[in-house]
Amino acid sequence: MIIDCHGHYTTAPQQLQAYRDAQVAHFDDPNKPQPELQGISDDEIRETIENNQLKAMQDRGADMTIFSPKASAMAHHIGDEAVSKTWTRINNDTIHRVTQLFPDQFIGVCQLPQSVGIPIGNSVDELTRCVNELGFVGCNLNPDPSGGRWTGPPLIDKVWYPFFEAMVELDVPAMIHVSSSCNPNFHATGAHYINADTTAFMQFLQGDLFGDFPDLRLIIPHGGGAVPYHWGRYRGLADMLGKPLLTEHIMKNVYFDTCVYHQPGIDLLFRVIDIDNILFASEMFGAVKGVDRETGHNFDDTKRYIDALQLSDAGQHKVFEANARRVFPRLDAQLKAKGR
Ligand SMILES: [Zn+2]
Fold first, then answer.
1. How many domains is the chain partitioned into structurally?
2. Phi, psi of 64 (to 5 degrees)
C-alpha cells in the first residue's frame, strides 16, 4: 500500500474562499456583512476530489493521502483568535467531509486555530475535537503564525509545551508547516516554507525538546528544507554546541517527507537520511504544479523519483507505508480495523 503523508485540499469549492474573503472584509470593517458559508454539496466535493487529487493518485499509483486544509490559506496572521478559530473549524469540517466521502483514500490531518500572541494551548481543544470526533490522525503546526515575521518564540520554548503534551496524550504527530508569507522578502512556497523547515530543525538542535518529550513525533516537510543538503553543518554544530549525535538528539523523533521535486534532491535525501526517517509525500496539488520540461513529468510526481532509486522491497515498504503507519498510529489503527 502506498500512503502519501502530505496532501492539501487546494481544490476546495470556491464557497470556502468566498467565506474567507467575507470574513476578512468583516474583520477589517465591521460595517460589512457577517460572513456566511454558502452550502457546499457532496457532489461538489466529490467532483473537486475525483478530477484532481484522486485522479492524480490513481495515475501515479498512490492508494491513500493524509489530507489537510490548504496550508497557505491558514494565514494565522490575519484577523484575531476568534477569526482563526472559526476559519479553522470550517476547514477541518470540510476535510472531514472529504474523508467521509472517500474513506478508503483520504484520512484527515487538521489545521490549528493559531494566532499571533495567543497561547498555543488554546489550540488543544480543536486538535482534540478533530482527533476524537472527526477521526483525524495528526495536525499541521505553524511554527510562525506571524506569517514570515517570526515574532513568536521558537518551538523549543516552553510556551509550546502544553500543545506537545496534548499531542503525546492523543498519540498524534504534527507536520511543522507554515502558511502564507506577509513578508515580501520571503516568497511563501519558494522561501518561507523551506526556511521554516530548516529553522525548525535548527531549533530542535539548539534545545532538548525530545529529552522532555521522548514520544513526540514531528514531520519536517519538503524533504527537511535545506537540512539534508547541509547535514555536515548540522552535525558539526551539534558537536560545537555540546549536543549528542543528531541520530540520538533529533532523529528518533523527527521525520522528513519526500516533497523534493527533482531526482538529484531525492537521491541526496536517501543518501543522507536514514530510510526509517523518510515518509513518502508529494504535497499535491501545492507548491509546484507544472510539468518539468526536462523530464516531461509533473514536478510533484515524487513517486517516480523514489521508484528510480530501486530500493529493496523492504526499503520501499518503509518509505511508502510502514513509516507512515508508525508515525501516525491512529492511521495504522484505522487501516487495521478495515483489514488493510
Ligand atoms: Zn504542505
1. 1
2. -150, 145
Structure confidence by residue, pLDDT tens digits, 144-190: 999 999 999 999 999 999 999 999 999 999 999 999 999 999 999 99
- Annotated catalytic residue within 133, 165, 169, 283: 283
Range(s) of the domain holding residue 315: 3-337
What separation in Å is there between the alpha carbon of 11 and the centre of ligand 1? 14
Each residue of 107-147: pLDDT tens digit? 999 999 999 999 999 999 999 999 999 999 999 999 999 99
Distance 283 CA to ligand 1 centre (A): 5
**Interval between CA 237 and ligand 1 midpoint (Å):** 28
DSSP state string for 212-244: H-TT--EEE-GGGTTTGGGHHHHHHHHHHTTPP
Domain CATH code at residue 201: 3.20.20.140
Q: Is 169 a catalytic residue?
A: no
